[in-house]
Amino acid sequence: MFRTTKILPTLCAFTLAWSALATTGVYAAETITLGAAVSFTGKYSTNGMHTKNGYDLAVARINETGGIKVGDNTYELKIIYYDDESTPARGTQLIERLVNQDKVNFILGPYSSGLTKAIAPVTEKYRVPMVEGNGASRALFDQGYRYLFAVLSTSEQYLQSAVDLAAERASAMGKEPSSVRIAGVFENDPFSQDVRAGVLDDAKRHGMKMVIDDKLPPEINDMSTSLTKVRALKPDLLVVSGHAKGAALAIRQVSEMKIDVPMLALTHCDSAQVIDKFGKTAEYALCASQWDRTLSYKDEWFGTAEEYAQLFETTYNYAPPYQAAESTATVLTFVDAFQRAGSIDKEKVRDALATTDRETFYGHIDFDDSGKNIAKPMVLYQVQDGEYKVVAPTKWASSELRHPTPPWAQRQP
Amino acid sequence: MDNITILVDAPILLVQLLLDGLLAGAIFALAAYGMALVWGVMNIINVSQGEYVMLGGFVAVLLAEAGIHPMLGVPLAALLLYLLGWLIYRLVIFRIVDRDLFISLLATFGISILLQQLANQMFGADVRTAEGELGTSFLFDGMVTIANIKLAAALIAVLTGGALWLFLKKSRLGQAIRATAQNARAARIMGIDTDRVYATTFALNAAICGAAGALVAMTWIIHPYFGLVYTIRSFMIVVVAGLGNLLGVIAAGLGLGAAENFAGFVLGVEYQAAFVFTLLVVILLARNLLLGRKRQYLK
Q1: Could you report how far apart the first and last alpha carbons of chain B are, in Å?
Q2: Which of A388, B20, B83, B200 has the fewest CB atoms within 10 Å, measured from its CB?
Q3: Tens digit of pLDDT per residue, chain B (299 long)?
Q4: Distance from CA of B289 to the nearest CA of A (A)
Q5: Looking at the DSSP assignment, which residues form a beta bridge with residue A179?
Q6: What is the ipTM for the molecules in this complex?
Q7: Domain contains B279
Q8: Is B241 in contact with B256 (CB distance < 8 Å)?
Q9: Which of A380, A359, A381, A356 lies closest to A368 in space, CA to CA?
Q10: Which domains occur in chain A, in start order?
Q11: Which residues of chain B approach chain A closer than 8 Å at the C-beta?
């Protein structure tokens, strides 16, 4: 007994001394720690995983390529993660913990507008910069937050290009854009109502009429009443926004009820995996996306968007959804800010973030005063022969739009 | 107002709305049927009802993903959920029979959270569907379209409901279940193993919900957190139908389904739920008034 009590402290002291020596001697690089509360469990767990994979890929890449040079020092990156269980209350607690206990000075955003909305007041209180890539609600950017920056396009832009596209097609067919009639079915949640606001703005700009403007309850599981109206009113464009469940329901019920509509535009097609699940019935559908691998963006860390996508695929064995790409871009934005600030002081980094203006594989990033990225457009896919093809905006399009969608009677089953 | 004009212009849409509503109502009625059974026999309001529906749905989804027709998921889900129901009775529910209503609410609420999270861990949080690929039926020159899967689902729902009703009326076990519902103590004195009756009832409820869930996955969508919708619908239908009135449950399910669809069309989908809950209040008030009158008469 006597012996062990003596040996133990000696051993401890020795180990401590050794490890201290090891860290100072061998690993010269210091570490910048980023903090993130991401949904590993709960209803956002799938997208939470995409978010984490996106963050991890960026960190691995930065560290592999020699870390970040900030002033005279070189730093490696590290992320401390916690599981926010997809609940806002837990998210706020964890950010408090990251800032107060783990002494993290830089926060990476969670998944979803709701959770971002919950934690932004906390990062604001502690004056800790947060860069996020998964909270698109525009309500995040009218609060006057100073420490919040978002690399993605805000939600009202999701389906605006669909309205523009419908106007373009009307002109091409010799009709007035104002003759286009729009049917909108939007989930009654902040995100989809933002999407709706964007569509309404654009419809107004073109002088178009909204013939249907339905608000689906968030627990929706049936869209048949709205689609019955679509059958009666025969609009030129049907716009549906209701996360993955809205996309899945729209594709399923439009095909089952054989609703003929020349143009169908959705959000969240890829989370709903409409091509895998519904095959040919998903053809012609237009889907809003933040990013696509075929776009011609590039940066010095990952190369082109396509090269990023390939690296992601070999690392995680699935193609990167845009949720992962925007998460990676979030980390890159911090890295760029560290380098330009020449310091890891959080105020200096915050100021550097505010003046960000650079290209990444994810797109151009340039924050306005409210912290949202105003330099990157949304793109619109169309499902063509079982693949997503970018059809709008025209500048980035890789394929021709197939329009109008032929009636069901003429489509191959 | 515009929406009423549409209906006046194209009255055929009334048929579409009515059919869609009735067919949706049939599936809700099935889940409600199970709830009425457990409530009536065991005096437990089972708020984990929707979670059995969800689990049944995942059975169909997994079958479809394995290349087997999800229709087989209906009997398979019923079987698996029967076993799960039995297990849950033996682990938890038997402790709360005859206890305060509040305890049973808490316990089943706990079970519901547990099942949600387990499903999330096992199957992921994605929205899933099972494709039956049964095609579409056209009526009235294609003006009314009904997905065949909805017809099949409604048929199965009604058949299952009918079979259950027969089972309760005719079979020995069914009679024992009804006897226990009427007076558990007397039933026990008459030699009925009420514990077994309770276990069977609870397992049967889970099985019915499982079958309903498989139909839901083929008709609409499922994900681990959508159970609550079905719990609330079931609750509403049972309240409207009244306890111990199993045929009433089917009627209430169909009626609410149709009413909801019309309300959604005319008032807009955002008022759909509000309309149905208002209807619920009206029905309860009306029933209370009628009962009140009856009592006075008896005096």
Answers
A1: 48
A2: B83
A3: 677 777 777 778 888 889 999 999 999 998 898 999 898 888 889 999 999 999 999 999 999 989 899 999 999 999 999 999 999 999 999 999 888 889 999 999 999 999 998 998 888 888 888 887 778 888 777 778 888 888 998 999 889 888 988 998 899 999 999 899 888 899 999 999 999 999 999 999 999 999 999 999 998 899 898 888 899 889 989 988 877 677 888 889 999 889 888 888 888 888 888 888 888 889 888 888 887 776 555 44
A4: 32
A5: none
A6: 0.84
A7: no
A8: no
A9: A356
A10: 30-154+298-366 (3.40.50.2300), 159-266+379-410 (3.40.50.2300)
A11: 3, 6, 9-10, 13, 16-17, 20, 24, 117, 120-121, 124-127, 129, 131, 136, 138, 142-143, 145, 147, 149, 216, 220-221, 223-226, 228-229, 261, 264-265, 268-270, 272-273
Contacts of residue A185, defined as CB under 8 A and 6 or more positions apart, other chains included, come to: A212, A214, A216, A223, A226, A238, A239, A240, A241, A242, A246, A250, B269
Residue B277 lies in a domain: no
Contact call for B272 and A215, based on CB within 8 A: no
Altogether, the residues listed in chain A come to a count of 413
In chain A, what residues touch B142 (CB-CB under 8 Å)?
258, 409
Q: Which chain A residues are within 8 Å of B10, Cβ to Cβ?
A: 232
Asked if A263 contacts A286 with a C-beta cutoff of 8 angstroms, the reply is yes
Side-chain-facing half-sphere of A38: CA atoms under 13 Å: 28
Strands A303-304 and A357-360: unpaired
Q: Which helix (H) or strand (E) holds A150?
A: strand A148-150
The token pair that represents A305 in the structure block: 């968007």
- Split into its structural domains, chain B has a count of 1
Round to whole Å and give the CA distance between A105 and A100: 10
Q: Structural domain of residue B40, as residue ranges?
A: 2-269
In chain A, the largest separation of any two C-alpha atoms, in whole Å, equals 97
Contacting residues for B111 by C-beta, under 8 A, at least 6 apart:
B48, B51, B88, B92
Whether residue B73 is contained in a domain is answered as yes
Which of A44, A215, A233 has the CB atom closest to B6's CB atom?
Answer: A233
Residue A323 · residue A54 · CB < 8 Å? yes
Decide if B226 and A217 are in contact by the 8 Å CB cutoff: no
Chain A contacts of B228, Cβ < 8 Å? 219
**Which residues of B are less than 8 Å from A215 in CB distance?**
268-270
**Residue count of chain B:** 299
Q: Are strands A209-216 and A181-187 parallel, antiparallel or unpaired?
A: parallel
Place of tokens 């199965």: B156
What distance in Å separates the CA atoms of residue B293 and residue B295, rounded to the nearest whole number? 5
CA torsion B74-B79-B85-B88 (nearest 10°) is -130
> Nearest residue on chain A to B128, judged by CA atoms?
A272
Closest Cα in chain A, distance from residue B39 (Å): 25
CATH number, domain containing residue B43 = 1.10.3470
